[in-house]
């Protein structure tokens, strides 16, 4: 996968990718669609952006729109996530690769309609719910010869994170960068614990960081937009490069063990809460508690 010219035959794979309509997502979808997946299901919130993505791929030299399906979801609405998962299990019933890529980076504390801090809900809690609901389908789809894989997109902000189980929603004072950092560490803690619970199932869970990529991620005040653009265009990687880093852990056949974290193509040994098994169990239980307190039927 290190070669940018490497290709794959995904004609027997059903794939879900969140976060497809902006930033790395557009390049990500264009590249993976060129590998001819059986079904490429894209959960999207904004239909207009979804159609713009399809038009972008139609006009590309390598992408294929024939395999792409746009399905409605709003990661800031837990009931929307539940509806998506239930529909997918009922109507599709097989899933081989799941990329939990969607995320927000806010420069203010935003609250969703479900009354959660937006970065906690969109980046982590909704992906926790979505993945948990899809796991039985992935287990049925997996074989020893063809394992299924789940991947979470990470962030370097994770280095400053410290998860407080009594402050997941940012009820106590937390800066916006710390809230984002925590949400990305939460992804990794969940991924590692999920992988442990998936032992002997032929399904593995991984996480990766694509590096700083030149995208429009991060909502800043209007007068700061030119500065953000200058910084990202100067120091950020091209979106195609970032997309290949995200594809790597899943499509690289030699990566057979989950519970790993990749920084671009490099395997990184994490420490602290990311690898603390006792903490991970408590965190998992806390997330389930949060979901059940919101609506006891979400996890059913």
Automatic annotation (TrEMBL):
UniProt GO MF annotations: oxidoreductase activity
Top-level taxon in the UniProt lineage: Eukaryota
SUPFAM superfamilies for the chain: NAD(P)-binding Rossmann-fold domains
Stored InterPro entries: NAD(P)-bd_dom_sf, SDR_fam
Assigned keywords, A-Z: Oxidoreductase
Protein name as annotated: NADP-binding protein
